[in-house]
Amino acid sequence: KAPISDVLEHFITSWPHDIISLGDIVDGLGTRSFGLILLMLALPNLFPIYIPGLSAVLGLPMVIVTYQMMRRHKHVGLPKSIRTRSLTISDFRRAMNFVIPKMRFVERFLRPRFEEISGPDYERLLGCLVFGFAVVVLFPFPFTNLLPSAGISLIALGILERDGVSIAIGTVVGFVGAVLAAIFSVAIFRFIWGLVVSLFT
To answer: What's 20's DSSP letter?
Structure first.
């Protein structure tokens, strides 16, 4: 069984066009689990340089995919308006080439543990958790999506490798990220509101 990092690296290096759409990603990975598609959507958000529009392109599909996971759909389905959202392959490769080596490091510690957590009995619960983290990724502020995306990535890896410890750590990371993103967003909105009030009083 090839490591997940090798599967993703082969996918991005073999892509022959200058643009890659969400439909291309889902179709390319469609025979695999929700976990691999979620991982592919979450990993680019871990890139430490802000790429405008990245969270908008990848965040909404993550919300849709996690909702379908929560409803225990058998296959991933995206509306045409979402499938056609695209990124340049150079931006996508740049982000993935940064995170894949880190992913290989994490893979060294993954192994089947507490496998029942990654099984179908917990699929709906995991879908609810990741759905909440995916909503946070949509927040329109730079870097607020970093920890929630890291949490989603760890949960996805745990699902793929049947590692309940990775799922548990991902849940904690995602929850902390969601709380911090909410606090930061509230602070930004209060600042903007205070600025508007001061201008008109």
So the answer is: E
Return the HEC string of 31-81: CCCHHHHHHHHHHHHHCCCCCCCHHHHHHHHHHHHHHHHHCCCCCCCCCHH
**Smallest Cα–Cα separation from 61: which of 47, 46, 79?**
79
Tokens of 119: 């099984």
Q: Phi and psi (nearest 5°) for 17?
A: -110, 165
Structural tokens at position 36: 């691999």
**What DSSP character marks residue 122?**
G
The SS3 of residue 24 is: helix
| pLDDT tens for each residue of the chain, 201 residues long | 678 888 888 888 888 889 988 888 777 765 556 788 888 888 888 876 666 666 667 778 888 888 888 888 877 777 888 888 888 888 888 888 888 888 888 888 888 888 888 777 777 888 888 898 888 887 766 667 888 889 999 998 998 888 999 999 999 999 998 888 888 878 888 888 888 888 776
Q: What is the DSSP string of 157-192?
A: HHHHHTBHHHHHHHHHHHHHHHHHHHHHHHHHHHHH
Residue 59 tokens read as: 């965040």
Q: Are 158 and 32 in contact (CB under 8 A)?
A: no
Residues contacting 167, CB < 8 A, separation 6+: 117, 118, 126, 154, 155, 158, 159
